[in-house]
């Protein structure tokens, strides 16, 4: 079984996908973490003008398992290095490059193959696994998503402002939605879930009820 969970920044899709993976015992693929990894490489090199084949020559490894996706670079697991807004911006800029996105789609399909997966990101249900058995699109208002990201980064001890985060989220939403190729939008057969006024537990139980119904 393949499950696609897509949605905009800070909508809560990683949280839901990870919990769903754990409840179902199915490996979790956080596609945004790989975009962030290459965004991190581009950030360190100060440019996104990097051919996909050159980026994929990096010494990296991806491990997907129940409840987790891990990225290793030169043998070291990267985590906090990938979570900042600036790396997210570089990831989003790379995401606008069709050749890079096509290479990423190919990479994710080869990584998962015919195995079960809970795939989470922006284009899992539209392009990576269009044949997924279940497709969910997790969203929330920009203000609520900025609030969630603000609280998340403050808990990590980062000195951020709500206003800056809201602006970054709105800019990234616009960029993701207005890409000439592969514009970010829900799959036509995705179930859209607005979580603005919903707790994580409510969203998870609702999705599990949909899966168990079939
Ligand atoms: N329904 C919810 N209500 C309140 N807070 C939530 C909800 N869902 C997730 N959160 C919190 O919001 C923050 C962002 O969630 P998460 O990282 O899952 O979003 P995301 O869509 O994966 O973000 P991104 O794609 O930018 O990585 C986390 O701190 C998470 O605990
Ligand atoms: N399938 C994907 C996943 C991510 N992106 C871009 O990467 C940025 C960072 O991802 P997060 O999930 O950590 O926010 C994101 O803003 C997207 O622009 C993508 O294009 N496709």
Task: Give a brief rundown of this model.
With 214 residues, this protein is of the alpha/beta class.
In the CATH hierarchy, the third-tier topology is known as Rossmann fold
End-to-end CA span: 12 Å
Number of helices: 9
How many separate domains make up the residues?
Answer: 1
**Using DSSP, what is the number of strands?**
8
Order of helices and strands: EHEHHEEEHHEHEHHEH
Sheet having the most strands: 5 strands, parallel
Report the β-strand fraction as a percent range.
15-25%
Class inferred from helices and paired strands: alpha/beta
- Write down the Rg: 16 Å
Mean pLDDT: 95
> Biggest sheet: strands side by side, in what order?
2-6-1-7-8
The CATH architecture can be given as 3-Layer(aba) Sandwich
The helix fraction, in percent, is: 40-55%
What is the name of the CATH class?
Alpha Beta
Rough outline:
globular
List low-confidence stretches.
none
InterPro entries: Cytidylate_kin, Cytidylate_kinase_dom, P-loop_NTPase
Protein name: Cytidylate kinase
Organism: Thermocrinis ruber
Family: Belongs to the cytidylate kinase family. Type 1 subfamily.
Describe the 3D structure.
The chain is built from 9 helices and 8 strands. Helices cover 50% and strands 18% of the residues. Strand 4 (68-73) and strand 5 (76-78) form a beta hairpin. The chain has helices at residues 13-24, 31-45, 52-55, 85-95, 98-112, 124-128, 142-155, 162-177, 200-213, and strands at residues 2-6, 28-30, 60-65, 68-73, 76-78, 117-121, 134-139, 191-194. The protein has a single domain (2-213), classed as Rossmann fold. The strands form 2 sheets. It has a 5-stranded parallel sheet. Strands 3-4-5 form a 3-stranded antiparallel sheet, covered by helices on one side. Residues 3-212 form the Cytidylate kinase domain.
